[in-house]
Amino acid sequence: MARSDGRLSHDLMPGEKGPQDACGVFGVWAPGEEVAKLTYFGLYALQHRGQESAGIATSDGQSILVYKDMGLVSQVFDESSLGSLRGHIAVGHTRYSTTGGSTWENAQPTLGGHAGGTVALAHNGNLINTVELREMVDAEHAGRTVRGELARGNTSDTALVTTLLSADEDKTLEQAAMDVLPKLRGAFCFVFMDEHTLYAARDPYGVRPLALGRLENGWVVASETAALQTVGASVVREVEPGELIAIDEDGLRSHRFAEPQRKGCVFEYVYLARPDAVINGRVVHEARVEMGRQLAREHPVEADLVIGVPESGVPAATGYAQESGIPFGQGFVKNAYVGRTFIQPSQTLRQLGIRLKLNPLEHSIRGKRVVVIDDSIVRGNTQRAQIRMLREAGAAEVHVRISSPPVQWPCFYGIDFATRAELIATGLGVEEIRSSIGADSLGYISTEGMIAASDQQPSQLCTACFTGEYPIELPEDGRIGKHVLETLPLEIASGHDRSVAVAAEDRAPDRAGGRAPSQRSDAEGVSVGVGTGGAGALDHP
């Protein structure tokens, strides 16, 4: 999966699977503002957190409209579609799938509701008790048909939560949230809404970041502070672990649904978050530079040049150069216009060494002893290709330094790594990995050094992908994983309800120009729109 923000280090090799991001969520309550456009630009700032699908829901106080499709934010939306999303409340989402496959049915925001109102919900994270939640849905609907997103093939944990929030017609959404949220296990940052109120909630461990911002005429919630700043909002604070926030015409109110047990994801500091994000008081860029300095202290080497793999390795490379005194320079040139490519090279082109996304800067590295800084090694194929490039360009020596410890364990809290069997650090020591990728030397930062660079308390960080120590206990029966819900039968039926979908055959784009969302409403108040997605990418700016 290529990344739209240009961080290409894990997409050098076609089909190479690097660590895939958690999702991005955004919500805004701002009467008088163009909330759909604010959400669009907020999602644009969060595009690095997911590139599979994007969606926006808006409410004008009377009805909710959702527009979503597969593809990047810029591919899904245009002026026409955004113009049709009217109202003063909006919720947006950009997705990488961690529960449920990458399909239109699983795109977010998800919809649910009953006669008393509607809920549109966006989720960043991953729940680990999805089977238990499915059983709760079955129990809540005993003797009744399960409708809505689940009935139309949604296999995500998000759809389960949406269904549970709207199960009891006698409860307001706020009351339902205070009842449902304590029953969820895993990592979650929710931004959701009904016709009148914007909500945000964060799991008690605070695994994923979620920040609250202030507009002149409203409030904004987003996965990263950078998205708040993009839309001109001032950063107020983080949404606290175990906190539910509600924002409406009466202002902002806060509820505590669980006691905080902070275990923030350390990989946010290593790779996931934007460099300009601030998480729990620490600027991510500063953490990455300090990781590079610590790498230089832990794994010094005599060399002539320090280079970073664009873009995620560059801050750590800067720190390594500062601490070691070895000059920092540019060793790779990236193609800034390559996003997701749907065209895979043939075997012949692969044998010719096609380099679509990254090329060595030969005049800078010829004859030099080079230190290459990257954020992580997953399978090793990407690093192997990088080293081969550098040697072909004339590098005298290639020393690899990694700003995280060896990745040895899968993440169940919102990052999709390769399987444990595919992780090169599973069963191989550092020297064996060095030999496999063809480096002259290899050094990983220590877990202690990485944590120190994050400037967080060790007891308040999750390091499970490096240590195998999972702070949120995993199900004993092993029923967990990306596709677990797709293997379970569900007694469902289609029918009229408050959340509706548009079939693929209804999505023929207007090639003459932009268009409003294709819409169908099977019940009062709710419509779903579908864009042209990746297939129509060339029709968009």
TrEMBL record:
<dbReference type="GO" id="GO:0004044">
    <property type="term" value="F:amidophosphoribosyltransferase activity"/>
</dbReference>
<dbReference type="Pfam" id="PF13522">
    <property type="entry name" value="GATase_6"/>
</dbReference>
<dbReference type="InterPro" id="IPR029055">
    <property type="entry name" value="Ntn_hydrolases_N"/>
</dbReference>
<feature type="binding site">
    <location>
        <position position="265"/>
    </location>
    <ligand>
        <name>[4Fe-4S] cluster</name>
    </ligand>
</feature>
<keyword id="KW-0460">Magnesium</keyword>
<keyword id="KW-0328">Glycosyltransferase</keyword>
<protein>
    <recommendedName>
        <fullName>Amidophosphoribosyltransferase</fullName>
        <ecNumber>2.4.2.14</ecNumber>
    </recommendedName>
</protein>
<feature type="binding site">
    <location>
        <position position="411"/>
    </location>
    <ligand>
        <name>[4Fe-4S] cluster</name>
    </ligand>
</feature>
<feature type="binding site">
    <location>
        <position position="374"/>
    </location>
    <ligand>
        <name>Mg(2+)</name>
    </ligand>
</feature>
<feature type="region of interest" description="Disordered">
    <location>
        <begin position="505"/>
        <end position="541"/>
    </location>
</feature>
<feature type="active site" description="Nucleophile">
    <location>
        <position position="23"/>
    </location>
</feature>
<feature type="domain" description="Glutamine amidotransferase type-2">
    <location>
        <begin position="23"/>
        <end position="250"/>
    </location>
</feature>
<keyword id="KW-0408">Iron</keyword>
<feature type="binding site">
    <location>
        <position position="462"/>
    </location>
    <ligand>
        <name>[4Fe-4S] cluster</name>
    </ligand>
</feature>
<keyword id="KW-0004">4Fe-4S</keyword>
<keyword id="KW-0411">Iron-sulfur</keyword>
<dbReference type="Pfam" id="PF00156">
    <property type="entry name" value="Pribosyltran"/>
</dbReference>
<feature type="binding site">
    <location>
        <position position="465"/>
    </location>
    <ligand>
        <name>[4Fe-4S] cluster</name>
    </ligand>
</feature>
<keyword id="KW-0808">Transferase</keyword>
<keyword id="KW-0315">Glutamine amidotransferase</keyword>
<dbReference type="GO" id="GO:0051539">
    <property type="term" value="F:4 iron, 4 sulfur cluster binding"/>
</dbReference>
<keyword id="KW-0658">Purine biosynthesis</keyword>
<dbReference type="GO" id="GO:0009113">
    <property type="term" value="P:purine nucleobase biosynthetic process"/>
</dbReference>
<feature type="binding site">
    <location>
        <position position="375"/>
    </location>
    <ligand>
        <name>Mg(2+)</name>
    </ligand>
</feature>
<dbReference type="InterPro" id="IPR000836">
    <property type="entry name" value="PRTase_dom"/>
</dbReference>
<feature type="compositionally biased region" description="Gly residues">
    <location>
        <begin position="528"/>
        <end position="541"/>
    </location>
</feature>
<comment type="pathway">
    <text>Purine metabolism; IMP biosynthesis via de novo pathway; N(1)-(5-phospho-D-ribosyl)glycinamide from 5-phospho-alpha-D-ribose 1-diphosphate: step 1/2.</text>
</comment>
<comment type="function">
    <text>Catalyzes the formation of phosphoribosylamine from phosphoribosylpyrophosphate (PRPP) and glutamine.</text>
</comment>
<keyword id="KW-0479">Metal-binding</keyword>
<dbReference type="GO" id="GO:0000287">
    <property type="term" value="F:magnesium ion binding"/>
</dbReference>
<dbReference type="InterPro" id="IPR017932">
    <property type="entry name" value="GATase_2_dom"/>
</dbReference>
<dbReference type="InterPro" id="IPR035584">
    <property type="entry name" value="PurF_N"/>
</dbReference>
<dbReference type="GO" id="GO:0006189">
    <property type="term" value="P:'de novo' IMP biosynthetic process"/>
</dbReference>
<comment type="similarity">
    <text>In the C-terminal section; belongs to the purine/pyrimidine phosphoribosyltransferase family.</text>
</comment>
<dbReference type="InterPro" id="IPR029057">
    <property type="entry name" value="PRTase-like"/>
</dbReference>
<feature type="binding site">
    <location>
        <position position="312"/>
    </location>
    <ligand>
        <name>Mg(2+)</name>
    </ligand>
</feature>
<dbReference type="InterPro" id="IPR005854">
    <property type="entry name" value="PurF"/>
</dbReference>
